[in-house]
Every structure is written in structure tokens, then in C-alpha cells.
Amino acid sequence: MKRPRFDFDKLACALEDVTSQIRKRLQTKGPQSFISKHEILGIITEEYLELVEAVRTDNSQEVEAELLDLAVAAVLSMTAIKQGATTASA
């Protein structure tokens, strides 16, 4: 089976969804960064396990929602590492 190509309009839409969700997360929970790589791992693991459960239930909307949560967690985690917020061991 030949793999389909990514539709760049859909890719742009997905990136907009991630950006929008990051803004919402920062507005509701505040701009505080993660403080350790262990905290990041815990958050990413939790989101991943929620994605696994959504895949098991075969609910496409839930899978998309969990992928969005995972993407937001990954981007915020990368930002925390880039700004050095995770250098302290906590």
C-alpha cells in the first residue's frame, strides 16, 4: 500500500491547533515552566497513556484530542529545556 502524502493545508491547520491549545493552556494554568526532566517525563507519559487508551477505544476524535495534548506537552517541554528551566534536579 502506498503511503499518502501530507496535505500541507492540513499540516498548517494541525500546527495552528497546537499553537491555539498552548495559548489556552498558558492562560488557564499560567506561564510557569516545567522544573525538571522527571516532571516532563511524567507529563509526557501521562499523555501517551491517554493516547493509548483512545486508540484502544477506536475513537478518532479522542485520538486527535490526545495527540493534541501530547503535542502541547512536547512543545512546552522542549521550550523548558531550551530556556534552561530543567537544569535543577527536582
Describe the structure.
This protein has 90 residues and is mostly helical. The protein has a domain at 33-85. The chain has three helices and no strands. Helix 1 (8-29) crosses helix 3. The longest helix is centred in the C-terminal third of the chain and has 23 residues, at 60-82. The termini are far apart.
Relevant terms:
90 residues
The DSSP helix count reads 3
Distance between the termini: 47 Å
**Helix coverage percent:** over 70%
Gyration radius, in Å: 15 Å
Task: Estimate the mean pLDDT confidence.
Answer: 93
Dominant shape: globular
**DSSP strand count:** 0
**Structural class of the secondary elements?**
mainly alpha
Sketch the topology as an H/E string, one letter per element: HHH
Give the uncertain stretches in residue-range form. Answer: none
- Approximately what portion of the residues adopt beta-strand conformation? under 5%
The major sheet is characterized as: none
Could you give the topology of this structure?
Elements: H1 8-29, H2 37-56, H3 60-82
Helix pairs in contact: 1-3, 2-3
Entry summary:
This protein is mostly helical and 90 residues long. The chain has helices at residues 8-29, 37-56, 60-82.
